[in-house]
Design a protein that fits this description.
The complex is a heterodimer of chains A (484) and B (234). Chain A has 484 residues and is α/β, with parallel strands linked by helices. Chain A is built from 25 helices and ten strands. The longest helix of chain A has 19 residues.
Amino acid sequence: MRTNIITAEESAKAFKPTKKPDVIKKQKLDVRYHVEDCDIHDRPRRFLAAFAAILKHTNYRFALEHFIRVSTKCSRCAVQCPVYQATGDDRDIPCYRSELLLSVYRRHFTVAGSIRGRLTGSGHLTDAKIEEMAEHFWNCTACRRCTLECPVGIDHALITHLGRFILSEIGIAPRALVVSTREQLEGKTGNTSAIPVPALKDTLEFLEEDMKEEKGVDITFPLDQENCEYLFTPAVSDFLMEAETLMGIAAVFKATGGSWTISTQNYDAINYGLFYSDRILERVIRRLYAESDRLKAKSLLIGECGHASRTAKYYVPVHCGGDKARPVFHIMEYTYRMLREGKLKLDPNVVTETVTYHDPCNIARQGWIVDQPRHIINAFCKNFVEMTPRGKENICCGGGGGTVSIDEVRPYRTLVGGKAKADQIRATGAKYLIAPCANCKKQLRELVEDQKIDCEVVGLHDLIYKAIIFDGAPTDNQNSAGKG
Amino acid sequence: MQEILDFTGGPLFRLSFLIMLLGLARIFFLDIYNAVEAYKKAGDKKLAWGDAVKKTLRWMFPVKSAFTQRPIYSVISILFHIGLILVPIFLLAHIQLWKDGIGISWWHLPPFWADFLTLLTVSGALALFIGRIGSKGARILSRKQDYLWPLFLLVPFVTGYLCANTIISPGTYQFLMLVHILSGNIIFILLPFTKIAHCVLIPLSQFIIALAWKFPARVDEKICTSLNKKEAQV
C-alpha cells in the first residue's frame, strides 16, 4: 500500500483546531475532538490509578509484559498504517503510538522500570504525556492493519484500545461518543440516535408502504415477536439514514420466509464501548443480550454494521455465558446461506453498473466475513471489480475506531484517515461502492464528497433490494433500477 | 594471559551460559504461566488456534512476508538472523569445545558456509545499523539498545572470523580470542533482559494477542468499585 503524503495546505486543514484557545487552556488538553468538562487536576495520578485498577481486573497485563520484552522497534508497521502513509509524521507510526503507553507501563508497573525511574528521577508520567496520548490514540482509526505486519507480534490496536480505555476513566473521551452512549444506556430512548419508539414505528410503517408500492408485495417489519429464529438489531442510525438497507433486509426475510423480529425495547446494536471503554462495551452487550432473553429469540442477528457485529459476535460469549450463549450472526451470513440454499433469487439484469466492495475492518480483519458478500455480489452483479488490497488486508475507510461519529474531525478523516481508501476507490472507477457497515457508509459518503469521487456508497442489501425476485411477483426492473 | 582465557572460557562462560538459560526459561515460562492464568479468566474460551499457528509459522519462517513489504530491509534482516542463529550453534570449533567439555556433539556447518554466513551476518548487522540511523521513522522509535545491539553483536563475529581465518601472531590471537569469549559471555548475560528476548518469545506472540482480546467476563462492576465510580454517570 502506498499513498502520497498530503500537502501542507491539506495538512493545515486536516489538523485545524476545532476548539477555542480559551477552551483548550481551561481543559489543559489540546486535542481536536471535544471532551466534556472534566477534572483536570492531578491527571497523572488519576491516570495511574485507573491503569492499576484496569490491570488488576482485566487480562491486559500479560500482554503488556510480553510486548515490552519483544518489541524490537523495527518500524515495519509504518508501511501498513494509512494514517502514517498520509501524514508522513513519524509520531503516527503505530509502534511510536504504542510506546506512549508501554513506556508508562514499564516505568510505573515493572520493578526494573520503577527502580531505574527512581534512580534517575525521570520518565514518570506527566500532563504533557497524557495530552500526547489523548491526541495520538484518537488519530488511529483502529483498523488493525499494523498488527498484520509486526514480525514480533505486537498488537498495536490492542494497546491503543487499552490506552483509550484508561483515558476515558479520567474523563478524556470524545464527547460525541460519550453523550450518545449515555442516551443509549441511561436515556429515555435507549439508543444512540435518541429515536423514540413512536418515531421508529412510523418509519417502519412508512417503509412497509414504500415496499408495497415498489415491489407489489406485503413486506413487514415484525416487532416484539417471541420465539423467533433471529432477533434483528441494526445500528440504530440505519432507521434514519439507511432505509434501503433495511428494506433490502426485510425483503430478503420475506422472500426466504425467515422468522425474525425487531425489539422495540432495544433496537440499537451500536457499541461505542469498543472504541473507548471495555466497561461500556460490557454494559451495551449485556443490554443487547437481555433483549434476546426477553423475546426468547434463538439467535442474535446484527445488521450491516462492522463494529456492532464484531462486538456482538466476540463479546456476547465473553459476557453472556461463553459456549452456552446464543449464537450471533451478521446479516450477510444469513443472506449468503439463503442464496446457497436456493431460497433467495436475484435478478442479474438489474444492477449492470460497475460495483466494488469495501471490507469493513471489524468483520474482515479476522477473516470472519470476506467471501460471503463476494459470493452474493457475484450472484447478481455483472461488473464487479475488486480493490487491492482487500479482505483481511483491506484498507480502512478512514472513519474507524469511532472517529466517524466525531463530526469535528471530518477534515482529518477525509484528508488523512481516508486518503489511501480514496485512492483505492478512484482506481476501481466503480459506480456503486458497497460498504456493509453504518460507520463505513457515513465516512465513505463524506470521503467521496470531499475527495470529489463520482461514486455512490450503498449497502449490500440496498442492491439486493433492487434485484430481489419474489416468487409469483416479478420485480419491476424498470422501476427499481431507475431509483438507483 | 592463558589463565585469563581459561577463566573466561571456563567458569565465566559456564556462569554466563547458565544466566542465559535460566533467564530465557524464566521469561518463556512466565509468559506461558501468565497466558494460562489469563485464559482461565477469559469469558470466552474459544480461540482461533489454527489461525494463531499459521501466523506464528509465517513470522518464524518469514519467506512469504519478506517480499510483500519493504523487501530489501526484510531480506537483509532475514539473512542476518540466519547467520546469527546458525553459526554459533553449528560451528565446528564450538562443537569441539562442547565435545571436550561434556562429551556431546552434533552436526556442523561446512567451514565454507560458516565463513560465508559469518560475513553475511556482519554485513547484515552493519546494514541494519545504517538503516536504523538512516531512516527518520526508525530513528524516532529507537532506544539506545536498538543502536548498540547490531554493533555489539558484530564483536564476537568479527573476532571469531579473524581468529579462524587469518595468520596472526599468537599474542594477537590470544587477545582477539579473549575479546571473542568475553563479548560472547556478555551477550549471553544480556540476552534475557533486553529486546533479544524475542528469540524465545516470538513463538508465543500470536497466541497471546489472540487471547488478549478475550476479556474476562463482567469486570465493569469490579473496576467501578476500585475507582469509586459506582454511582457515576456513563
